[in-house]
Structure prediction request, 480 residues.
Amino acid sequence: MGNPKQSRRLTRRGPSLPRHLWGGRFQESAAPEFSRLNNSFPFDHRLLPFDIEGSVAYSKALQRAGVLNRKEAAAIRRALQSIELNCSNRPRLIRDALAKYEDVHSFVEAKLIEQVGEKGKKIHTGRSRNDQVALDLRLYLRHHCRHLCRKLVFLMETLTAHAQRDLMTILPGYTHLQRGQPVLLAHYWMAYFEMFSRDWERMKTTLGHINVMPLGSGALAGSGFPIDRRFLAKELGFQSITRNSLDAVSDRDFAAEFLFNGSLLMMHLSRLAEDLIIFSTTEFDFIELSDAVTSGSSLMPQKKNPDALELIRAKAARVYGNLVQMLVILKALPLSYNKDLQEDKECIFDTVETLDMVLEAIPLVLRTLKVKTQKMKQAAESGFLNATECADYLVRRGLPFRAAHETVGKVILYALQRGLPLEKLSLREFKLYSPLFGPDIFDAIHLKRCIESKSLQGGTATIHVKRAIEDARRYIARIQ
Ligand code: ARG
Prediction:
């Protein structure tokens, strides 16, 4: 890329030394020990397409401000576009440059000057890397948040489809990991739908906070050139512009928010992963995970381990770590920009890449797992999951709930001693505990009835779960 004469001029300080944007007042080169610490290009090269997008728009603003003439601005834009194309077609270009440049901004500017010569040196007029990097980060996060939102929608669709399929399947519902009351498996899937729809909403809210344009804030005080910031915002698809330059170059609230949203999303995923790991054990045996998302043991030939789910569960820790890193970097940071802010990037990149990976994997795990309907039903039939319904029966016949609870507790003790479920007791045995029991008790404590009686909005009755699925479908259609 570029003309060899110009690139020799650029590397006057020796080909192995980093190219800096700030050489003038320095008499000595940066020490390699410092460069190793200081250089962010090994990770911030991910910002390259966004840095270029920002510079393309900035060249237009400079033209409007009279800093660049039409020909210069056009040449700069062409060069920027060709740098992007070259870098995306030949990843080696970046790989080979990683050790040589301080950061992505220095790299792009150096390449631009290599290509267009002197006029390229005007691109940074009235701009600082401080407002530039704030812009790049916002563009990067805006792009990836939108992408992650689409993946969240796909996950919500997967859960809704499962719910539709499993409207007739009964699952023991748990509290304290002890069997509590029966629920529809569809209701269970829709519980996770709720969590992920909140995650989607949070990401959308954060997108609004990300979508504010900081360019024109300069290093900290603003810009002395007549840069049309609203024009820039429009060019780059931003809804508004930042209102205070000191704040704009040091604000990473939007990034912390993104990491918090990511943390809650990972928490939800880790809970789903944990449930499914438990359900897939021989002890529960409610589901079978596909070979495609499990692995074997190098020693025990019978093993099928839920690795994908275990890793999703563990990746939550990594994202929480990234959130904490960001919060601690920002804590007590004096205004305005400080180099500490360079350390915001890896926790953002790592979170984006982690979320992307797990949001690819989890729908696959869900779509390929087999539900063992019979096993779930058998489990729901033992463990007195109909005990609450039995107490409610007595309440409907006039007994105060606390007394009904006590009575049914005694019936259960009796049944436990005989090793029988409630429904296998005779009416005579029920009546030993309360004269209110009648022959309709057997119908009342049937599993199906336990489910259908929970017909308030939010409950597990089929009619309500069907409605929840319809609402979910409408929601998905609206947000897509
Ligand atoms: N690489 C830097 C960062 O990520 C760019 C901004 C540098 N600004 C400065 N004043 N040294 O934050």
